[in-house]
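Write out this protein's structure.
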Amino acid sequence: MNGWPIWCGAALALYIVGLSCVARRESSREKIPHWPLILLAAPVFLAMLMNAGENRVAAIWLSLILILWIAFCVRSIFQPGEVNVGRIVSGLLAGIVFVDWVAVAPACPRGLSFTFLILFGATILLQRFIPAT
């Protein structure tokens, strides 16, 4: 065994810790610090470190999707005005699907990739009816 599942679990754990640091500000008016963004990007760092050769291409594309989603979710942190932390947290919770997708990038057949997109869409849709936070 090469330890890949342990490293993927650690990357997911760091993402969850970063998400939790943001979520902690939901009930307060405190400004959200920028350092949790590094933890949110942990799966991307791992994907670049662990994937080589032809697996690197898939890891780059999936990491780009994850980074764009994180940037979309946290963009209001960098804008003036009030920040809707609940909305950020809901988006980041939906992004866990992308974190999982990045984790299985080396062994992910195209059909399974479609499944991740469906799961992400279902998560976003269901959050309209069932609050994520």
